Amino acid sequence: MRVLFVCLGNICRSPTAEGVLRHKLREAGMVDQIEVASAGTGDWHVGKAPDKRSQAAAKLRGYDLSAQRAQQVTRADFATYDLILAMDNSNLRNLKALQPAKGKAELDLFLRRYDSEIDEVPDPYYDGDQGFEQVLDLIERASDRLVIELKGRL
Ligand code: 4NP
User: What is the C-alpha separation between 116 and 95, in angstroms, rounded?
Assistant: First the structure.
């Protein structure tokens, strides 16, 4: 099983989701069976480590994002990944425009799939620290539910 998280820049939200899910899979003893990655629809930050604010907020909760490097999503990803999860509706629209007619990946909005209260992970890039905490709160809750789904699919 392969899971890809996608946001706009691949330096805030999707790297956080990648780090949180990998941590939770390790705790659940599933980390060797499920590959997790992240990408951005944009290419501005390709090759860069996650935003310092994302790294700092994640580290305080025990997630190490420091080894991650930003990459841009490609059409080939639809053949590689089983599940592609977008952080907001704009990301989802961009992914739908890129999606080949044939491709195994199931494409969905991350929070719509796993959270009944809110659909989108808000972009924290231009926000203060509170935005980064909210990103983590939303991603942690949805990731717990994603782990349960993945357990059922193994
Ligand atoms: P992300 O946040 O999509 O969660 O990585 C952003 C990062 C950078 C920019 C926008 C959003 N940017 O415009 O450079």
Answer: 22
Task: Measure the CA–CA gap between 73 and 87, rounded to whole angstroms.
Answer: 13
The domain in which residue 111 lies consists of 2-153
Could you tell me the CATH number of the domain that includes residue 7?
A: 3.40.50.2300
Catalytic residue among 12, 13, 22, 77: 13
Structure tokens at 104: 């195994």
H helices present in 99-128, as ranges: 110-114
pLDDT of the residue at 103: 86
- Give the global pTM: 0.98
Position 18 confidence tier, pLDDT thresholds 50, 70, 90: very high
Total tally of structural domains belonging to the chain: 1
Whole-number average pLDDT of the chain: 97
34 lines ligand 1 (CB under 6 A): no
